Amino acid sequence: MKIALIGYGKMGKAIEEIAIAKGHEIVLKIDAATTSDFTKENVQKANVAIEFTGPHTAFENIIKCIEWGVPVISGSTGWLDDFEKAKKLCEEKKGCLLYASNFSIGVNLFFEINKQVAALMEPYDNYDVSMTETHHTEKKDAPSGTAISLADQILANIGRKNKWVNGPSKEASDLIIRSERIDPAPGTHSITYESPIDSIEITHTAHTRKGFAGGAVLAAEFVYQKMGIFTMEDVLGL
Fold this sequence. Notes:
By secondary structure, this protein is of the alpha/beta class. The protein contains eight helices and eleven strands. The protein is 36% helix and 25% strand. The strands form two sheets. Strands 2-1-3-4-5-11 form a six-stranded parallel beta sheet, with helices on both faces. Helix 4 (83-93) links the parallel strand 4 (72-74) and strand 5 (96-99).
């Protein structure tokens, strides 16, 4: 499979290493110094594009790949206000888009655990739920996309929480997300249910970027020659 890397930072390099080890070919690498290479002709040399950039460029990058008929998977966060626009264009063009706030297999299993725990805790309003997410200082967005996904799952299952807030709040109906930026920290997400008599906590900690990169390559293999809009749940059969 021929892969275009739209975003060639630490994550892009980790994806490249795993993709090559699995026998794939990297035909395009786009970073801040090579944006002039991000052309229709170059992108169409690939069977799939893997997009890991930032909140200000992701949507435009994804739209270009869809317009040019190349399946695209994206792990960029902070652009989801425009997700429905990307989805609509993908449907109109009969293209292929896979978005995930986190490509790690472990995190996606953690998502399923989170939903189950939230459903179990819903009847017990003496437990208050909150979240802490910790990442490296280079991470541009807060809270993380993974934290937002976890929060949305909790809100869907616990009726006494109405919205998430990134920081302190005195409103009992707010789900508090605390964001910490510490080096080195690939990523830790903890959800705590606390009552006056005990606490229950579930945590996922990433040790390296390889888990995210390996999941991204797996997702690229999944979308190869497919049309539609997919998630990591589809990739993992969850």
